[in-house]
Give the backbone structure.
Amino acid sequence: MKPLSFMPSSKPALADPHRLIPKVLDTNVLIDGRILDIVKAGFLEGPLVVPGFVLDELRHIADSTDSLRRQRGRRGLDVVEALRAARADVEIRPSSPSGVAVDVQLIDLAESLGGKVVTNDLNLSKVARIRGVEVLSIHELAQAVQIPVLPGDAIELQIIRDGKVHGQGVGYLDDGTMIVVEGGRKFIGQKIHAVITKILQNEAGRMIFAKPQQRFG
């Protein structure tokens, strides 16, 4: 029997259209910083656009007299530099002062480019979607990859600080999910077993409550 032979297809391979869709980065997503790890991990394809008005806003924040605000602005600028070092397709798009709110400019730019807005701002996400502009939310991505837990599940975590209510302690799962432990304040600095008691879900994310079972060793 003759071996099978494979003839090359006469049709050219189709380019992935998603690779060509510009992703317009918002100020808060640059200050947040997680965008850098997401890009390095290869989960965000296509050209990344940093508008000039976003850079201007970051510079303004970095020049603030408030030390915390100044630190946030500088972190955002550092993330822009790191993105440019990590990816060749990061575009700084010049812009002229327009007197229009940054959020509106951002949506207008994404719409004109046929691109998507990358943001963590819930209100900006809503307005963009109303206008038919697609949104990639780092916050929603983080929610999607959180460790799934249900009431009754047993967990282990380090109690690191007080909660807002007297007697509460706060710890975090490996993915950064915050756990409020009723009566956990006395275990600050210790690792404990705890049981999930309830989960509250809202637009800002999940609030997970637990109660301690026992302290490790």
Summary: Confidence is low (pLDDT under 50) at residues 4-15.
